[in-house]
Structure formats: C-alpha cells, structure tokens
Amino acid sequence: ATPISITTAAGRGAQAGVLIKDAEALERMARVDTIIVDKTGTLTLGKPELTNVLAFSDLTSDTVLKLAAALELGSEHPLAEAIVEGARSREITLPKADSFEAVTGKGVQGAIAGQTVALGNTAMMQLLSIDTSRIEDSLDALRMEGKTAMFVALDGALAGVVAVADPIKPTTAGAIRDLHDLGLKVIMATGDNQRTAEAVAGSLGIDDVRAGVLPEDKKALVEELHARGHRVAMAGDGVNDAPALAAADVGIAMGTGADVAVESAGITLLGGDLVGIVRARKLAKATLRNIK
Ligand code: ADP
Ligand code: MG
C-alpha cells in the first residue's frame, strides 16, 4: 500500500467509525505487538439473555429469579438487564429491594422483604463466606457452552443459579484472524469464570485467556506485558476497563460503552467491534511508512 498522511488516515478512519485522537495514538498503534480485549461487549454482543434458572432446597425457580431480578433492578450491568428482562418475560412481579450495593467484578447484594439476597460469581460468594464447591462441577456444562452462571444466595445460603448467554458478534472470528495475519497476539481479559472464558476464547482462536480478573488486574496485566518487553493495545467498553486503557500504549474504547472508557482512550471505535481495530492497525501501518 502507498504511504498516507496522518490527516488522510484520520479522515479515512473517521469515515469508517474509527476515531483517532492524535498522531501519537496512530504511531503507537503501528508499533503494538499484543492486543488485550475484554469479553463482554467487545467479543460478544454485550446483550446477554437469560437461559437457565436452577433452584435449591424447597424454592421454586420463579422465586429464585424473582429475588435475583429484584436486586438487579438497582444495577446497570448488562448481566442485570438480562436477568430483569428474563423475569419480565416470565411475568414475574418484582418486589422493591430495601437496600442495594454493587461489588465491582463480583456481583450485587441487598435486602428484600427482610431477607438478605446476594447474586454474583464465586468470588462474590466467597466474600460472603458461602461455599459453592459442592455445585461448581454441576455448572461446568453451562460454562462450557460459554454461558455465565451466577449464584443466588438467600440469608447466607445458596438458593439457586441463574445463567445467561451472550452471543459472539458475527464479525469477531474474522477480525481475530485478520489481527493474527497483521502480526498481533490477542489476549482475552474478563471478569467472568475461567471455563466460560475458555469456551468463548477456544471457538475464536484467542492466544491467551485471563479470567476472573478485577479491573485493577487488567491494568496489572498491561504492566506485566510491558515488563516482558511487549507493546500493548487494550480494547474495552466499561468503567472497569478505564485504568487498563490508560496504562496501555494505546487504549481502544468501544464507542458503545462507558464515557469514561472513551476519555481514557487514544482510539475510539464507534461501531464497537473488532473490525475497527483491524482498520486502525492498517491505517497506522500505512501512515508510519510515510512519517518514518
Ligand atoms: P467483564 O469483565 O466480562 O466485563 P465484570 O468484571 O463486569 O465482567 O464482572 C465479572 C463477573 O462478576 C461477572 O461475570 C458476574 O459473574 C459477576 N457480576 C458482576 N456484576 C454483576 C451483576 N450486576 N449481577 C450479577 N453478577 C455480576
Ligand atoms: Mg465489561
């Protein structure tokens, strides 16, 4: 390809929904060797749907879903929307929670009609000293389908499980092949469970998976790669991802995500899918050939 100027690159990028902050972001994009991507909303549609509800002891699955959804009314997480929507489609009336607290990267907790209710991953249950070991194995089948399983606890005891599926964007697999062809290694970092993450990554040919990571761990991963001599781009959509976006050589925000992610980024993808990263890399390479 012929070398192009930064202005031309920025213009072509903008036409394709790839917003480049400045020349430096473009130059850095040409030099990265590794891309870290968030799973939810980046590789997947970010529109999970409720697929399974399991109830323990003498509870019904409608009761488990009612408690989970009532709590999630207070949350803005994509998982919360899936659970609330799932309850609505089953015509379950939701009580109002008396209190509500979100725990980043883990889940939510609160009180409903005098009972304490919590919902989230294994780490969330650990936080509440609730042992999940006896049912972890039975969730493997769900997780191996790429579903996210969340525990529901009532008054400090396991009450059930809700699971959601978030389909992979149709463009993701092809974009990852293109990124590989452009010489980039692709690492997935997600707060989700290891098996769920591996199921999604495996079907996409992702090079490495870091699961169960908290926001500060995503930043630590960037730093770890830097220490090993890599140049890193990080793509993400959430408030959670802002520290890692800022630490990376190039932060790539999904325009469909949180404003704070956009503010921390050198490149913003309006369409919000990985094809934009392929395009940004090609533009960056074509420009760098010109300014070197
Ligand atoms: P990601 O890295 O995929 O964006 P998060 O860091 O937001 O994920 O969350 C990690 C995990 O914590 C989720 O997979 C889920 O199990 C749990 N979790 C987080 N927020 C909620 C919530 N509002 N309701 C239920 N579970 C949650
Ligand atoms: Mg996220």
From TrEMBL:
Included range, full protein: 448 to 739 of 796
Family: Belongs to the cation transport ATPase (P-type) (TC 3.A.3) family. Type IB subfamily.
Subcellular location: Cell membrane
Top-level taxon of origin: Bacteria
Protein name: Cu+-exporting ATPase
